[in-house]
Amino acid sequence: TLCSKGVRVCKTRLANLRDDYEAAKGFVERNSLGLNNTDSNGSRNNNNNNGGKERLLSNTETLRSQSDTLANARSIMAETESVALEITEELGRHRETISSAHGRVRQVTGMTNRARRIVQSMGRREVQQKLILYGVGGTILIVFLMLVYGMFK
């Protein structure tokens, strides 16, 4: 994004320099055609030809203004396109990040389900082992009581 900002600044400078060049070029063209508003003494020319020159100059300025407007619109369009491309690339990177995170979430969910099954299995084994232990302890107690009863009989 820092490089794109630098590119935008350079494009803006280039557009400004082109505008300055076109203005200077127009001035030189008007002077070479004798369309400037003042004569060599600095006083106004009011001859019959001056009205046509003024209209020509006005039309030229209008065309130049419209050309400048179009050039500015083109540069804005190009800049908008570059920004849109940058946003598209960034959205692509975000999509990759999200899909990667989604894959990791699925892995963690799978591991969590497996851990839950293991803990449930361990709980069942614990209950089974306790029942067996109580059964073996009860059997030993019964055998012990029978032996004690058999010894005192």
Describe the structure.
It is a single chain. Helix content is 88%, strand content 0%. It is built from 2 helices and no strands. The protein has helices at residues 2-33, 49-151. Helix 1 (2-33) packs antiparallel against helix 2 (49-151). The protein starts with a helix and ends with a helix. Residues 39-46 have low confidence and may be disordered.
The helix/strand order is HH
Average pLDDT figure: 84
Beta-strand residue fraction: under 5%
Rg, rounded, reads 46 Å
Low-confidence stretches: 39-46
- Gross geometry: rod-shaped
Main beta sheet, described?
none
What oligomeric state best describes the polypeptide chains here? Answer: single chain
Q: Based on DSSP secondary structure assignment, what is the total number of beta strands? A: 0
* Count of helix runs: 2
Helix content: over 70%
Structural class: mainly alpha
Distance N terminus to C terminus?
100 Å
Brief description of this entry?
The chain has helices at residues 2-33, 49-151.
Keywords:
0% strand, rod-shaped, single chain
Describe the protein's topology:
Layout: H1 2-33, H2 49-151
Helix pairs in contact: 1-2
